[in-house]
């Protein structure tokens, strides 16, 4: 019987089940390598945005300070930040060999993420109605590409977490799936890291003019 | 003999529970600090202070929040994260150079002598 198939109880469950197998160890390092690349990707989008901010072809186009509403950005920030904490709770239950708690808190994380994504779609629709579209100006292209790429990452994260729940709900916790939850949670935290810079550079600095 | 084993298992269970509760308390404290930092950043902008003062401060708060996120939520403070740190710092190095270069070329300097020609 291999290590991965062994039956675990709360007593012999390892302290760090996510790195208890070689696959788990490799996955953790590999995922950090991927996140390093993601940093460079988002940084290039931020650089583009900063270079093209408020670059509009004529005076009847809206600028950043006319477009952004701070209360909406604040609510979105709180939703995403809280979802980061709920995914920490999920991993806390995973380490305590509590599969029910793990799935419950991942479910809450998904709901908060859906709330964030819903608000972002509402925001984009609102901007399009005000004439600020992907093609209306260089500012519009840079804005939607940066914020939209982040929104796409949120969508990927939500699909990922949902699939994890559906795939593993009947299996219970094991060394085989512990690192899967850990990797998804890391990705979710990284989405929050990027959002911290988006709300600072795009929304707060945009409102300042 | 089996009593002794049961006792040890019990002690181990309690020790691990205490340890993970302590860890979780630290995570919640970290979350509270991040919420507070976010709130301060939004309040500074809403207060309409001079932007020469506000922009550097909110950028500093963003960096602080990201460091907290990496070190506590993403467990980078844990041991054996050397390779992760190497790749992350490389990513940040390239990222910063992109941003600094773009801002310099477009807004600050004139390295291609477009304006002075």
What report would you give on this structure?
- Chain A has a single domain, classed as Four Helix Bundle (Hemerythrin (Met), subunit A) (Up-down Bundle), CATH 1.20.120.
- The relative contact order of chain A is 0.18.
- The radius of gyration of chain A is 20 Å and the shape is elongated.
- Chain A has helices at 22-52, 64-67, 70-95, 99-129, 138-168, 175-208.
- Chain A is mostly helical.
- Chain B has two domains: 2-78; 79-117.
- Chain B contains three helices and no strands.
- In chain B, helix 1 (2-46) runs antiparallel to helix 2.
- Chain B is elongated and about 90 Å long.
- Chain B is mainly alpha-helical and 117 residues long.
- The chains are: A mainly alpha (209), B mainly alpha (117).
- The interface between A and B is large, with 49 and 50 residues.
- Chain A: Its main location: membrane.
- Chain A: Belongs to the cytochrome c oxidase subunit 3 family.
- Chain A: Residues 29-207 form the Heme-copper oxidase subunit III family profile domain.
Task: Please describe the structure with a list of short key phrases separated by commas or semicolons.
heterodimer; A: 209 residues; mainly alpha; Four Helix Bundle (Hemerythrin (Met), subunit A); 6 helices; 0% strand; B: 117 residues; 2 domains; 3 helices; elongated; Cyt_c/ubiquinol_Oxase_su3 (chain A); transmembrane (chain A); Cyt_c_oxidase_su3_a-hlx (chain A); cytochrome-c oxidase activity (chain A); Probable quinol oxidase subunit 3 (chain A)
List the helices and strands and how they pair.
The complex is a heterodimer of chains A (209) and B (117).
Chain A: H1 22-52, H2 64-67, H3 70-95, H4 99-129, H5 138-168, H6 175-208
Chain B: H1 2-46, H2 51-73, H3 82-108
